Structure formats: C-alpha cells, structure tokens
Amino acid sequence: MTDRYFEDYVPGSTHEFGNVKVTEAEIVEFATRYDPQPFHVDAAAAADGPFGGLIASGWHTASLMMRVLADNYLSPVSSLGSPGIDELRWPKPVRPGDELRLRVHVVESRPSKSKPDRGLVRSRIELLNQDDEIVFSALALNFVLRR
Fold first, then answer.
1. In this predicted structure, what is the pLDDT of residue 2?
2. In what order do the strands lie in the sheet with 99-111?
3. I need a labelling partner for 110 at 20 to 30 A (CA). Which of 42, 46, 89, 145 fits?
4. Angle CA(53)–CA(57)–CA(60) in degrees, nearest 5?
5. What is the pLDDT of residues 61-111, one digit of tens each?
6. DSSP string covering 35-92
7. Distance, CA of 147 to CA of 135 (rounded, Å)
8. Per 3-state DSSP, what percentage of the chain is helix, strand, and coil (rounded to 5)?
9. Which helix (H) or strand (E) holds 34?
10. Are 6 and 80 in contact (CB under 8 A)?
C-alpha cells in the first residue's frame, strides 16, 4: 500500500515484506567502501576470523532493511522522516547467500500534540534470514502525515 497515512499504522498490526538475497560481491563492495574490516572484505582472512567466514557489515544489513522499509512500509505520500532509532541490534551475522525478509510490528501510534497534521509511529523492525533467525532489530520512530 503506497498511500498509507498515520491512521493506517494500527498498533498491534504486523506486516512482512519481500525477500532480499545477499551476495558476496555486495558484502565486499559495501564493506570496502564503508566498513573495511577483514571479516567483511577478505573471504580468506574471514575464514580464520571470529565468525568463521565472510559476513556483511551491520551497516550494510541496516541499509538493506531501510530499502525494503522505504519501498513497502513507509509511504511516499505521508512519510516525514524519523527523529531516530532505538535498540539497534545485529544478533546474528548476515552471510553470502542469505535471503532476508522484513517484519514490522506497529508498537504505538499517537497524534502529535504540537502539529495536528501528523503523528508519531513507533515500530519494531526485524530482518529475518531464511532460517527465521533475526539478523537485525530496531525500534524506529517515524513522523507520518494524517489524512
């Protein structure tokens, strides 16, 4: 649903979206540019490292989450940005070949007291891999226009 407004983010509702396949090339490309630690950029070094193989940067995982969130959950007609994210976690590593999906649970939605044209939506966001393991979680806040 692209024309989603504040009133459509119902507390207690859960939404799931998409599959994103993670490739080794993408992991290395992202990490080479933004997070060049050996376990993100060098498969041979990663094999002997703390994770036993190449893993995606947590920031890469967060960017994959954001793409699916922006394409499916945040509406281009009503999204007004975010004042921040709480409880950001990467409980399991993302590896080449993983297929991720997004699960979003609306925790709270409340109208703004100072700006009556909008509200604040608090969402629990999780990325899960093909084994239903949570690889990313956060509690996000978003400003959303009202109808």
1. 72
2. 14-21, 99-111, 118-128, 134-145, 84-89
3. 89
4. 130
5. 999 999 999 999 999 999 999 999 999 999 999 999 999 999 999 999 999
6. ---HHHH-HHHHHTSTTSS----HHHHHHHHHHHHHHHTS-TTTB---SEEEEEE--S
7. 34
8. 25, 35, 40
9. helix 24-34
10. no
The answer to whether 64 and 127 have CB atoms below 8 angstroms apart is yes
Q: What is this structure's pTM?
A: 0.94
**Total length of the chain:** 147
What the block records as the tokens of 102 is: 């997004």
Per-residue tokens: 132: 């239903």
Provide the residue type at 7 as one letter: E
Residue 132 has pLDDT above 90, yes or no: yes
Tokens of 78: 């009503």
How far apart CA 47 and CA 129 sit, in angstroms, is 21
